[in-house]
Design brief:
Blueprint (H helix, E strand, L loop, with lengths): L1 E2 L3 E2 L4 E10 L2 E10 L4 E5 L5 H11 L2 E6 L5 H4 L2 H8 L2 E5 H7 L6 E4 L4 E4 L2 E7 L8 E4 L3 E5 L17 H14 L5 E4 L9 E2 H7 L8 H8 L12
Parallel strand pairs: 5-6, 6-7, 7-8, 12-13
Antiparallel strand pairs: 1-3, 2-3, 3-4, 4-5, 9-10, 10-11, 11-12, 13-14
Helix pairs in contact: 5-7
Organism: Geotalea uraniireducens (strain Rf4) (Geobacter uraniireducens)
Keywords: Hydrolase, Metal-binding, Zinc
Protein name: Beta-lactamase domain protein
Length: 233
């Protein structure tokens, strides 16, 4: 596990990205710290419980919330031990919970445009299906946590159960309409650039933000002959 720095914005919260490796998987999970209350939210906790707990202890943070962008195992596998240890609320979209029958203690189903408070920090829920049927992004004043919906370099695959390239197109259009260009993007995986790029930069360099036709987008995302799941161009 390595820490990738932090960002503090004018609203009084900090974001701590954690790069965590397990076999061939590299995930980013995040700790959001509300500086006024000391409360923390953990986004997509994965793989290395000891490292995550060590970071929380170093920060002196109280984890009161877990934010899940979707229910794939590499984004949720630390939920149960964290709930046992800290008793936080666990937030997941209702669509994701119902479709995949995901369950855990302290689970709260969120709807599109729900607002959640972490101390003094406001978190907005954006339903962004495509990678899964109920993928959700979490929008703060200067930060967007995208899971496997949007990467800096591309977007998530749409071939797993409940995935939809058409849904992914609509979700990216929603992000373009909803999120301000200055907002920093924090995805679940990175493939060259570090997390925290501005949405303006993502929109400039990410090919999926340039495809204005749904048919063109779907054909490109689902094209044959891709060398691997991360062949974005």
């Amino acid at each position: 596990m390595t820490s990738s720095g932090c960002r503090t914005d004018i609203q009084g919260y900090q974001v701590f990205p954690l790069r965590i490796c397990y076999q061939f998987m590299i995930n980013y999970c995040y700790i959001i710290l509300d500086r006024f209350s000391g409360e923390a939210a953990i986004v997509d906790p994965a793989w290395d419980l000891e490292a995550l707990q060590g970071k929380l202890q170093e920060m002196g943070a109280r984890p009161t919330m877990i934010l899940l962008t979707h229910s794939h195992y590499d984004h949720v596998n630390l939920v149960a031990p964290l709930v046992r240890e800290y008793d936080p609320k666990v937030i997941l979209s209702r669509q994701e919970r119902d479709y995949y029958q995901f369950s855990c203690d302290n689970l709260f189903a969120a709807e599109h445009l729900d607002q959640i408070r972490l101390g003094e920090t406001l978190i907005n829920c954006l339903l962004t299906p495509g990678h899964t049927t109920g993928s959700m992004c979490y929008l703060l004043s200067h930060s967007l946590f995208t899971g496997d919906t949007v990467f800096v370099e591309g977007c998530g695959i749409c071939t797993t159960e409940g995935g939809s390239a058409s849904g992914m197109f609509e979700s990216i259009q929603r992000i373009k309409r909803t999120v301000e260009p200055h907002v920093s993007v924090f995805p679940g995986h990175c493939y060259g650039r570090a997390p925290g790029c501005s949405l303006a930069s993502v929109m400039e360099h990410n090919i999926y933000f340039h495809l204005e036709s749904k048919r063109q987008f779907v054909d490109f995302r689902m094209r044959k002959g891709q060398t691997n799941s991360f062949a974005f161009k």
